Amino acid sequence: PRAGIDSEAYEKAVDVWCSDDRKQAMTDAKNGLEVNAKHCDSPVAQQYQLGRQLGVNGTPSLFLADGTMLPGYVPPKKLKRVLDQRAAEK
What separation, in Å, do the N-terminal and C-terminal C-alpha atoms of the chain show? Predict the structure, then answer.
């Protein structure tokens, strides 16, 4: 959740994670429908903190095997070119 762990988005992410049917809960949340508030021991806060430590400040963000981060949307042709270049360097 970009707004942090004290946000409504965080609560929704936890609700989705803790749902019995995560796929349906995610669909419902994206469509503005209520997801049954159910709390469990979720990794959402830990993953949020890890993202901050790695410099993730938006989505999508891709990480290559060498740890290089590609922030934002990368068009398929450009992504292929980057991956091919990295493979050739090995």
Answer: 36
Burial class for 36, CB neighbours closer than 10 Å (0-12, 13-18, 19+): exposed
Within this chain, do residues 33 and 66 fall inside the same structural domain, yes or no? Answer: no
* E-state strands within the chain: 61-63, 69-71
pLDDT in tens, 2-43: 888 999 999 999 999 999 999 999 999 999 999 987 779 999
Domain match, 36 and 62 both:
no
Residue 41: which CATH number? 3.40.30.10
